[in-house]
Amino acid sequence: MTDKVIDAIYKMSEKELKNLKAHIRCRQDSLAQQTKMSFKPGETCFFKGRRGMLLEGKIERIKQKYILVTIPSTGMKWNVHPSFLKHKATEV
Asked: DSSP letter string over 55-70?
């Protein structure tokens, strides 16, 4: 299927590509919104930090684009995109 999609993309005009790009962006936003709404303040979550370490934190606040996560052991606060958060450590 992927090969067919790639072939179709190469045959598209610039106008069609811009339209496709807008639809892809809309779908990405929709998926991010769904992921964001699956988390609740006070819930424990997991994500990988800048150096690849697995971090466990508590959701403090859900913002428009990011989720504010507090790391209890250090007190540090991270703005994390919902797509990087997981409910279980095994999913990360």
From this structure: EEEEEEEE-SS-EEEE
